[in-house]
Design goal:
Strand content: 5-15%
Strand order of the largest sheet: 1-2-3-4-5-6-7-8
Largest sheet: 8 strands, parallel, barrel
Order of helices and strands: HHEHHEHEHEHEHEHEHEHH
CATH architecture: Alpha-Beta Barrel
CATH superfamily: Glycosidases
Structural class: alpha/beta
Distance between the termini: 11 Å
Number of helices: 12
Number of strands: 8
Length: 337
């Protein structure tokens, strides 16, 4: 089997080491509060087990965690404080997992619909806002370092299609947005030079949008190492099947790697929990397309959030069933090369 794997990798232009390094990830930002509310996780055999161990047994080698500035204790839209995130990162690292840290620069969700400033930063002028970004990023990274955790990747902003920290960091003002990005970049590198900084947009199948955004990033001197993409066919207009957009995702990733010379990674993906076979098929296809990005620049795939069972979260795109067990979808991380 090992010899066959190496042969297949060589045919694809990859080394065996590249296969071992391919990211198979899970975002588990909800896990601390799920455990705090008494939710129990069961493996596919129905045995209660640590959630991260279940993920690891499915081939997951990377854990993605979000951090919020001053979050509430709301079950679904709170938690993810610095201390909670550091503790979860340490727990995952001790299990041999790689870590991606995701700065939202908000007290709660940051995405294309909402990029609200943390309450403590409201009213600050732009000079102070830049310092806020640097100081907060440096503080969280320093806490990680003190705990013995080295995040391999760090996102500066989450799904920043129209920018972050509105209104100052909106894409309507690219010179200011680039400055905010660079404050985060510099703070990350000051604490952990080896960590790769990720800039992340949604709608990963939209090549023109990514080109426009990263052309502007380049023109304004924004610094980063990796391009992160979200890919959710379920949320596209009409909720089409992934087969209608997977080739567009591949074309975009190939274009990004060639145009900007950067590594690319699908940092968020998910499919409907009630259609586990379709989600399995999609995950297999996405992993294959990422591996096919030329020159080994396709780094991996991270599911958001496989553990977030609908019975607890009311979220439609987990990979966990009402019985507390993983669905068929999770087999894709075992069955892909």
């Amino acid at each position: 089997m090992k010899k066959l794997l190496i042969t297949l990798l060589m045919a694809a232009g990859l080394s065996a080491n590249a296969a071992e390094q391919f990211v198979k990830g899970a975002d588990v930002g909800w896990l601390p509060q799920m455990e705090a509310t008494g939710y129990k996780f069961y493996n596919k055999h129905g045995k209660e087990q640590d959630a991260l161990q279940i993920l690891k047994d499915y081939g997951i080698n990377t854990i993605r965690l979000r951090t919020w500035v001053n979050p509430s204790d709301d079950r679904a839209s709170g938690h993810n404080s610095k201390d909670e995130t550091v503790a979860m990162a340490l727990r995952a690292q001790k299990m041999g997992m790689r870590i991606m840290l995701n700065f939202h620069y908000s007290d709660s969700w940051a995405d294309p619909q909402q990029q609200r400033k943390p309450a403590a930063w409201v009213g600050h002028d732009f000079t102070q806002l830049k310092q806020d970004v640097y100081d907060y990023t440096h503080d969280v990274m320093s806490a990680m370092k003190k705990a013995g955790v080295t995040p391999e990747w760090v996102q500066v902003g989450n799904e920043t299609r129209t920018g972050m920290l509105y209104p100052e960091g909106h894409t309507d003002n690219w010179p200011q947005l680039a400055q905010l990005i660079n404050q985060g970049y510099d703070a990350v590198k000051a604490v952990s030079p080896s960590s790769k900084v990720v800039l992340h947009l949604d709608r990963g199948q939209d090549k023109q949008w990514f080109r426009t955004w990263f052309d502007n990033a380049q023109a304004n001197g924004a610094r980063y190492d990796v391009i992160g993409l979200s890919y959710y066919p379920y949320w596209l207009d009409g909720r089409p099947d992934y087969t209608q957009s997977i080739d567009a995702l591949a074309a975009n990733m190939n274009d990004l790697a060639a145009r900007y010379g950067k590594e690319v990674m699908v940092v968020e993906v998910g499919g409907e929990d009630t259609q586990p076979q379709n989600t399995y098929d999609m995950l297999m296809a996405v992993q294959r397309k990422v591996r096919e990005v030329p020159h080994g620049k396709g780094q991996g795939v991270i599911y958001w959030e496989p553990l977030g069972a609908r019975s607890w979260s009311h979220y439609e795109l987990s990979a966990w069933g009402a019985d507390g067990r993983p669905t068929r979808a999770m087999d894709a991380f075992l069955d892909s090369l």
